[in-house]
Structures are given as C-alpha cells and as structure tokens.
Amino acid sequence: MADAMTGAPMRAALTDATDDGDRAILSVSALELSFGGVRALAGTDLEVRRGSITALIGPNGAGKTTLFNAITGFYRADRGNAFFDGRPLLGKPPHAIARLGMARTFQLTKTLAAMPVLDNMMLAAPDQPGERLANLILRPGGWRSREAEVRERALELLETFSLRDQAEAYAGTLSGGQRKLLELARVLMLEPRLILLDEPMAGINPALAQRLLGHIHELREGRGVTFLFIEHDMEVVMGQSDRVIVMSEGRVIAEGTPEQVSRDPHVIDAYLGSSGEAA
Ligand SMILES: Nc1ncnc2c1ncn2[C@@H]1O[C@H](COP(=O)(O)OP(=O)(O)O)[C@@H](O)[C@H]1O
Ligand SMILES: [Mg+2]
Description:
Elements: H1 2-16, E1 24-35, E2 38-49, E3 53-57, H2 64-71, E4 79-84, E5 87-88, H3 94-100, E6 102-104, H4 110-113, H5 117-124, H6 129-138, H7 142-160, H8 176-188, E7 194-198, H9 206-223, E8 226-230, H10 234-240, E9 243-248, E10 251-256, H11 258-263, H12 265-277
Parallel strand pairs: 3-8, 3-9, 6-7, 7-8
Antiparallel strand pairs: 1-2, 1-4, 4-5, 9-10
Helix pairs in contact: 5-8
C-alpha cells in the first residue's frame, strides 16, 4: 500500500529523468577561487552529462585540480554554485559529498600503505551509525553481519580488479599500477554515481592503463556510473571519452564531443598559447 502511494511520484521522477534539465548529474556555475593574486577559478561554468565518460583537459595551471578540490569540499570557493544531482555541494565537508554519491580517488597515504589491501577496502566503506545502532538494539549480532557484508563486497571488488590474491598483502607492496586499481576499487565501496579521477593513467604501464580503462567502461555500462576524469594523454581523451570539457585560465573555453573539441580554434590557441607563455 505504501508502494501504491509512492508509485505515482516515482514514475513522475523517472519521466523527468529523461528531460533535458536532468541530463546533467553535475552542474557548476560561475565558480571562483583565488589563491592570493592567482585566479585559479575565474568563473567556471560546466555540466557533466549523466552516464557520460567526460574528459576534463587544459594546459597546466588551467584550474582542473582546483575545480575538483572546490566541488568535493577540500577548498572553499569564493563565489559560485555547484550541484550534484540537484543538491548543493558548496559548504559541505568532503565526507558528506562522498556520501551523496560523488566520490574521488585518493593516492594511498603512508598509513594506508602500511595496512593490508582488504583493510584499505573495508575502511573505505561508509559508516552507517543509524543502521548500526538499530542493529545493536533490534538484532544482536547485526553489527557483525554488517561487517561481513562489507568484507564480502570488498572481496568481490578485489576479485573484479584482479587484486583478490593481494587481499592480505600490505598495500605499500603493490606496484604503481595496482595501487591505481586499488584507489578506484576503494572508491567503489561508496557505491558512487559520479567518480572524479585526477590523471588516473599517470605513471602506470600501458597494460594496466588498459585494464583501468576497461573497468571504467564496465562500470559505466553495467552500473551507469558517470566519470569525470582529468587527462593529459590526448589519445586516451579522444579514444575513451564521449564528452570533453576544456579549461584554460580558470574558465571553460570549449565543450563537446572529442571531434568537436579537437577542431575548436580556441582549444588549439589555448594549448599553443600556454606553451608560448611558459617561456
Ligand atoms: N594550494 C594552492 N595554493 C596556491 N596556489 C595554488 C594552489 N593550488 C593551485 N594553485 C594555483 O592555481 C592555479 C591552478 O592550478 P591547478 O588547479 O593545479 O591546475 P591544473 O590542475 O589545471 O594543472 C595554478 O596557478 C596553481 O599554481
Ligand atoms: Mg592538476
């Protein structure tokens, strides 16, 4: 009966999801952030389409990493707006943003490197204090079953990422490429709908890079996860993304399919211009 009552609004929401207004899972408008005199974000406007694999490119210093930090709660923007699935992001702490379903990968810290791979995964699972309390009261042993669930999910993900055999190994003993896979696997413990990756292929060998890309496509196709990734390798950008957003000097200067963007004179100027200015 509760279903019958909520059925109508749910159908309405599903219909809305096909409307143009709901195509964006992330929307950022007029975002500004300065470090002293440096305007790292100078009025950044962008939208990331739901279900897309979107590449964020631009010359060094364009503000790409700062944008990630500002929308995930690590830096405080001076002005502007950012919404994930219609919910405001600015002013929220990083863990609250991750819990909304927007997650980013992190390099393994020293502390995490000194822990087994499986513990790394389990630590990444969200705390559910309400559920935990209810479990303690309503069914003793519920906490254990929650832990067992988390462990099972962690092992499944490790299996998917071909890291199952390393579950008991210290994370610090993994190769650079395996660490990148672990970083992505950890984030998946949060079951995010949008994953932000900052140069995920940097410093890993081509075979592992291919595996990482394979996982990204599988997650998009299989679970509908949206990806926004910062990438320098143009071959990867052109071959793997369906949308490309180009930043330069704290602003978005172009957006479109890889083909559209690669022909855009502003983009060509930004890259040539920045290498000229670097001198
Ligand atoms: N924590 C910081 N403190 C001071 N300046 C910063 C900081 N982070 C980034 N910047 C500056 O902001 C600008 C944008 O940097 P960044 O976002 O790292 O660019 P990108 O990731 O596109 O290479 C650069 O001029 C950079 O030096
Ligand atoms: Mg950067």
